[in-house]
Amino acid sequence: MVKTITIPEIKVMAELITNMKHKRVGILGGTFNPPHLGHLIIAEQVKSQLNLDEVMFIPDYQPPHIDKKTAISAEKRLKMVKLSTMDEPGFKVSDIELRRKGVSYTIDTIKELKLKNPEVDYYFIIGGDMVEYLPKWHRIEELIKLVKFVGVGRPGYRKESKYPIMWVDVPMTDISSTLVRRNVKQGCSIKYLVTPEVENYIHEEGLYRE
Ligand SMILES: Nc1ncnc2c1ncn2[C@@H]1O[C@H](COP(=O)(O)OP(=O)(O)OP(=O)(O)O)[C@@H](O)[C@H]1O
Ligand SMILES: O=C(O)c1ccc[n+]([C@@H]2O[C@H](COP(=O)([O-])O)[C@@H](O)[C@H]2O)c1
Q1: Can you tell me the ipTM of this complex?
Q2: What does pTM read for this prediction?
Q3: In this protein, which residues make up the domain named Cytidyltransferase-like (predicted)?
């Protein structure tokens, strides 16, 4: 038997659909060579201050800037990102760019994600160094309409952009993957710069010694 839906029922359903909360997902894209506590601090602060449902870490396959060298394989970087984030249920890891291969342009990633999850609002987190570089991003005018960019301060970089950036205040740290790689190479400590699991992995695999 076909049930007739009454006007009040339709109104209730329409209200429910309108009020349905869009899922809010932060994205932290990076080379993560290796992932460090600076990444975790900004992800956690943005997640909590913007009330996001989760933050997805997306390691790139081939970084778009030509000056970035990735001596470490994508699989090892993915493994370290998983080790870094495993204790935090609000942190997820996606291998979307590793599966796609080639140059990891953010526009391609966002379009793929939006196609799969049209109801999700994405917040792409970038440090001050990346904010400055934003005008040079691939198809930036199109990308800016698909995601909200969230900027976080990084020592030495200005919080300015011609693009609409949502700035979130985070405790600024001068931790970088460059510093971690340099310390390993020089035989200096990386304790408290990376998680203990990543520290063990780097030493066990003999990464960054050369
Ligand atoms: N300490 C930090 N404070 C704020 N943002 C950061 C910090 N470290 C990394 N980021 C941001 O995280 C994203 C991914 O960074 P990435 O994986 O390239 O690490 P990195 O430390 O910048 O690496 P490298 O030293 O090799 O250039 C970028 O948007 C970057 O600006
Ligand atoms: O799409 C672009 O043109 C583009 C240019 C520079 C950086 N990105 C993305 O920004 C993120 C941080 O980059 P990186 O090189 O600092 O690790 C990472 O997800 C990159 O793919 C993207």
Answers
A1: 0.99
A2: 0.92
A3: 27-182
| 13-31: average pLDDT | 83
Note whether 116 and 140 are within 8 A (CB).
no
- CA–centroid distance, 140 to ligand 2, in Å, is 12
- 61-106 per-position pLDDT tens digit: 999 986 666 679 999 999 999 999 999 999 999 999 999 999 999 9
Q: Provide the percentage of residues in the chain whose pLDDT is more than 70.
A: 94
CATH of the domain at 140: 3.40.50.620
Distance from residue 155's CA to the centre of ligand 2 (Å): 19
Q: Nearest bound ligand to CA 127? A: 1
**Which helix (H) or strand (E) element contains residue 167?**
strand 165-168
Ligand 2 atom nearest the C-alpha of 29 is: 19
Count the domains in the chain: 1
Is the residue at 1 inside a domain? no
User: What is the domain range of residue 81?
Assistant: 19-174
Task: Tell me, yes or no, whether 200 lies in a domain.
Answer: no
- H or E element, residue 131: helix 128-133
**What CA–CA distance (Å, rounded) separates 207 from 210?**
8
What distance in angstroms lies between residue 127's CA and the mean position of ligand 1's atoms? Answer: 6
In a domain, residue 78? The reply is: yes
**Pocket of ligand 1 contains residue 176 by CB under 6 Å:** yes
Q: Does ligand 1 have an atom closer than 6 angstroms to the CB of 32?
A: yes
Region 136-155 average pLDDT? 96
Domain presence at residue 204: no
Distance 187 CA to ligand 1 centre (A): 22
